[in-house]
Amino acid sequence: MNSIKILAIESSCDDTSAAILEDGKILSNCIASQTIHKEYGGVVPEVASRAHQANIVPVVEMALRKANIDKKELSAIAFTRGPGLMGSLLVGVSFAKALALSFDIPMVEVNHIQAHILAHFIDDPHPPFPFLCLTVSGGHTQIVLVNNYLEMKIIGTTIDDAAGEAFDKTGKLLGLDYPAGPIIDKLAKRGNAIFEFTEPSIPNLDFSFSGLKTNILRFLQKNIQQNPQFIKENLSDICASVQERIVSILMNKITKASQQTGINNIAIAGGVSANSGLRMALKEKGDTIGWQVFIPKFEYCTDNAAMIAMTAYYKFLNEDFVGQEITPLARYNF
Ligand code: KG4
Ligand code: ZN
User: Which ligand is nearest to the CA of 308?
Assistant: First the structure.
């Protein structure tokens, strides 16, 4: 039997990525990041869409070259259908449609959030089913009960901002570049969590981060009134304190989810799972209470096409294909 070779495209936000998978193994994973958004303090949808148009052909060519695969050998083409920015998604979907048509190969549509979770199956060890996944990105904060590759249920979600947004909006208040998550993470290593920010009391397994933002804003305003240099003089300690609070909110909810479901296999996924404070807290908790903890490699935490390819592989095995009538979805629940 011929091997299964899939080209996957990810273009949901501000990274254009292409990956090649052969029989469940990733051969290449190329990413073109758009640094232009730094100038605006956030992703500008129109700018992102145009940059995807410029990047997609070279990124796909690079992924094919690195994998030493010719387009004619492809078994299928996969793409992110959503959730994401409509203009960005459209570039990936249109590219996939054109390629599928010209090479007469099937298309596989992928949910971006499911793909973040299935990034855990790129390398060993794979989490055993069922497991709980704390999915924390710039747009989402969810606790997902994963019963099988494509059988997942959201059991907790944010009622306002996502955890990544909490990092990015704090960064804006502190005058840091976008995305601020990795910068706050780095600065926090040099500081101490000496400032106290309140933990919201949200019922069930849901999250809220908008109150924290207001809390930080008021705290900064009050201190700057007394000392205009407050941020500059205390930046590392502020970052350490904010990070500690975000991590404790996440850890408390995933602990509650584990107690409620009796599941001790715990994974994290999405851009914020690159955070060193969260990674450390999860490992420590795992060691103390006997969780089996799964933390993805850094390169598979933030947006990448390897995770799209991995998800597409399981869908390909189920012959779960879509036709040329497919459209992207800015909001896409599973
Ligand atoms: O998954 P992702 O690449 O894109 C979305 O699907 O949203 O996540 C991006 C988010 C941004 O909010 C970014 O600030 C955050 O992940 N992030 C981090 C770190 N690395 C990325 N947040 C905290 N610490 C990090 N090391
Ligand atoms: Zn993402």
Answer: 2
Take atom 10 of ligand 1 and give the residue whose Cα is closest. 138
Q: What tens digit of pLDDT does each residue of 52-102 get?
A: 899 999 999 999 999 999 999 999 999 999 999 999 999 999 999 999 999
Q: What is the Cα–Cα distance from 190 to 57, expressed in whole angstroms?
A: 41
Task: At 175, list the tokens.
Answer: 């005058």
Share of the chain above pLDDT 70, in %: 100
Helix, strand, coil in percent for the chain, rounding step 5: 50, 20, 30
CA atoms within 13 A on the CB side of 89: 19
Distance (Å) from CA 124 to ligand 2 centroid: 21
Q: Is 164 in the pocket of ligand 1 (CB under 6 A)?
A: yes
Angle at 177 between CA 185 and CA 53, to 5 degrees: 110
Torsion sign over Cα 52, 54, 55, 60: positive
164 and 144 belong to one structural domain: yes
CA dihedral sign of residues 245, 260, 297, 26: negative
Q: Model pTM?
A: 0.94
Same domain, 24 and 50: yes
Give yes or no: residues 13 and 59 share one domain. Answer: yes
Task: Give yes or no for residue 274 CB within 6 A of ligand 1.
Answer: yes
Q: With b meaning 16 or more CB within 10 Å and e meaning fewer, what string describes 231-260?
A: beebbbbbbbbbbbbbbebbbebbeebbee
Residue 290 lies in a domain: yes
Using the atom order of ligand 1, give the atom closest to the CA of residue 168.
14
